[in-house]
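Deliverable D2.4 — example input (structure tokens):
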């Protein structure tokens, strides 16, 4: 069962929609209830967990799994942020991630156990079907995979790539740092510590 923001959040989303509608022409995109074509081009055709993991392992690409719920203010906020942003799309254009978008009944298979909220964003190392990587958002209410903004998602993606490839480690504002989480050792020996990211 998914939990979403209370109805008061819908009022906030409505205010954002009004603000976007009164903005000067061309200044802001209109809100979308779904992902735009520029985002959906990166989604795998199947949302089945076994098929996505098989694809990820075969292509040596980490999985980015976005779980949403229709009629959910937080899910709509994430979709709007990714549709109107460019940073995540630029990373996806490099072909380094396999992306699954699972919504409503398709999401049940991907929902993190005992984490019944939406949206959820998880990252999976290629070939690791047991548990998602411990890259988490900055939700103050104990929802580690609750990511609703492009900046946090892009930061997580960069950290996944750092864990797989090495190079300079991405940093972000320390006020947004998640609590210590699990450690995850990749096949190349690098350890990703959710608390250190």
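Example output (designed residues):
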């Amino acid at each position: 069962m998914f939990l979403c923001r209370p109805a008061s959040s819908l009022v906030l989303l409505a205010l954002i929609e009004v603000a976007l509608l009164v903005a000067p022409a061309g200044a802001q995109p209109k809100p979308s209830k779904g992902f735009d074509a520029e985002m959906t081009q990166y989604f795998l055709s199947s949302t089945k967990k076994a098929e996505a993991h098989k694809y990820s392992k075969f292509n040596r690409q980490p999985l980015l799994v976005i779980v949403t719920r229709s009629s959910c203010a937080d899910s709509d906020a994430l979709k709007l942020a990714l549709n109107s942003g460019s940073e995540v799309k630029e990373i996806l254009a490099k072909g380094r991630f396999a992306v699954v978008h699972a919504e409503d009944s398709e999401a049940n298979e991907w929902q993190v156990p005992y984490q019944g909220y939406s949206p959820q964003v998880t990252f999976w190392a290629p070939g690791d079907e047991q548990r998602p990587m411990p890259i988490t958002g900055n939700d103050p209410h104990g929802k580690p995979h609750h990511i609703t903004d492009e900046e946090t998602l892009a930061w997580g993606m960069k950290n996944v790539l750092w864990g797989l490839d090495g190079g300079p480690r991405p940093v972000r504002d320390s006020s947004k740092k998640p609590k210590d989480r699990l450690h995850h050792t990749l096949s190349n020996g690098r350890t990703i510590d959710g608390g250190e990211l």
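The chain is about 35% helix and 10% strand.
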